[in-house]
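Open question from group meeting: does this chain pack into something compact, or does most of it stay loose? Before anyone orders reagents, we agreed to write out a predicted structure and look at it together. Recording both the input and the output here so the notebook holds the full record.
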Amino acid sequence: MTHSTQKPRKEPAPGMVEKRGAGLWMTHAIMILGVFVVFFPIWLAFVASTVTQQDIVSPPMPLLPGDQFFANYKEALFSGVNVPVMTMLLNSLVMAIGIAVGKIIISLLSAFAIVYFKFPGKQIFFWLIFLTLMLPVEVRIVPTYEIVAGFGMLNSYGGLIFPLIASATATFLFRQFYMTVPDELAEAARVDGARPMRFFKDILFPMSRTNIAALFVILFIYGWNQYLWPLLITTDPEMNTIVMGIKQMFPSGDDVADWPVIMATSILAMIPPVIVVISMQKLFVRGLVDSEK
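Structure tokens returned:
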């Protein structure tokens, strides 16, 4: 007769399940409370975008949507104050995508050059790039404006995008990732006769897709929220971004703000970043936490 060598299953201590359940409920309660605190102002903005002006200025403000949804959003999208919100949304979308894609492309190539190529002063160039983190747009905005104006890129998508596409942070992150890639991969590609750009396109780029997705989400929101730079280089209302448009909707002096249209514009301004975050959520999380490189 053979005796079983399986160890007896250890029973949980009395009260452990109850404590774990109480802690789980407390965690969920705190999470729900946090979601409510964050979501409630957004809900109020949505409700304000579906009611009349009188409903907003006459307290108490309603907490349920009204019957002016289509009228307010139609006025915001196709009328606006200076230009229709649809035009400003398009400008912001082009700017955000251009900045995100431009930063990623330049950072991928610059990090590739720094890690896999040998040239004089390589480390100096890297640290010069890294030091630009201490020079935000606000510090270099005057010389940048002079350069953009000299190239005739005022009131253009090029002027909105090109001065903001260099990213020391993304370059540093891709450099750190490339340094974790085994040297054997580069050696194998070299033995197979693959040229450097072939190695980059077929091996490094596919391995970087989760990092690219995470950075794209962050950089898209960065570009979407830009206010100072577009305000400086655009004088044509047709080139206004959505963030500029919301600010311009607030009246000056004794004028009365059209709050339903302003709130409808604010809700519309949230939609593209939310779509980007939701559609790339899985890749975004993997790009931040995945350690299996």
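Observations to bring back to the group:
Residues 77-289 form a domain with the MetI-like fold fold (CATH 1.10.3720.10).
DSSP finds 15 helices and no strands in the chain.
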